[in-house]
Amino acid sequence: MTMPRGARGLFAPERVAVVGATEREGSIGRAIMENLESFAGDVVPINPKRDEVFGIAAYSDIGAVPDPVDMAVVVVPPHIAVDAVRNLAENGVKNVVVITAGFGETGSEGAAREHELQEIASEYDLNLVGPNSLGVMSTPVDMNGSFGPEDALPGSMSFMSQSGAFITAVLDWANDQDIGFKDIVSLGNKAVLDETDFIEIWNEDGDTDVILGYLEGIENGREFIDTARDVTEDTPIVLVKSGRTDAGAQAASSHTGTIAGSERAYEAGLDQAGVLRAENVEELFDYARILDGQPVPDGDDVAVITNAGGPGVMATDAIGDSDLNMASFTEETVERLGETMPDEANIYNPVDVIGDADNERFKKALDIVLEDENVSSAVVISCPTAVIEYEGLADDIAEVQQKHGNPVVASLMGGERVEVPADTLRDHGIPNYFDPARAVRSLDALATYRDITELDYEPPIEFDVDRDRAEEILRSVENRDTNRLGVEAMELLDAYGIPTPAGDIVDTPTKAREVAEGIDGGVVMKIVSPDILHKSDIGGVKVGVEDEDVEDAFEDLVTRARNYQPDATILGVQVQEMVDLDSGTETILGMNRDPQFGPLMLFGLGGIFVEILEDTTVRVAPVSERESEEMIDEIQSAPLLRGARGRDPVDEDAVVESVQRLSQLVTDFPAILELDINPLVATPDGVQAVDIRLTVDPDQL
Amino acid sequence: MTMPRGARGLFAPERVAVVGATEREGSIGRAIMENLESFAGDVVPINPKRDEVFGIAAYSDIGAVPDPVDMAVVVVPPHIAVDAVRNLAENGVKNVVVITAGFGETGSEGAAREHELQEIASEYDLNLVGPNSLGVMSTPVDMNGSFGPEDALPGSMSFMSQSGAFITAVLDWANDQDIGFKDIVSLGNKAVLDETDFIEIWNEDGDTDVILGYLEGIENGREFIDTARDVTEDTPIVLVKSGRTDAGAQAASSHTGTIAGSERAYEAGLDQAGVLRAENVEELFDYARILDGQPVPDGDDVAVITNAGGPGVMATDAIGDSDLNMASFTEETVERLGETMPDEANIYNPVDVIGDADNERFKKALDIVLEDENVSSAVVISCPTAVIEYEGLADDIAEVQQKHGNPVVASLMGGERVEVPADTLRDHGIPNYFDPARAVRSLDALATYRDITELDYEPPIEFDVDRDRAEEILRSVENRDTNRLGVEAMELLDAYGIPTPAGDIVDTPTKAREVAEGIDGGVVMKIVSPDILHKSDIGGVKVGVEDEDVEDAFEDLVTRARNYQPDATILGVQVQEMVDLDSGTETILGMNRDPQFGPLMLFGLGGIFVEILEDTTVRVAPVSERESEEMIDEIQSAPLLRGARGRDPVDEDAVVESVQRLSQLVTDFPAILELDINPLVATPDGVQAVDIRLTVDPDQL
Question: What is residue A260's predicted lDDT score, i.e. its pLDDT?
Answer without folding.
Answer: 53
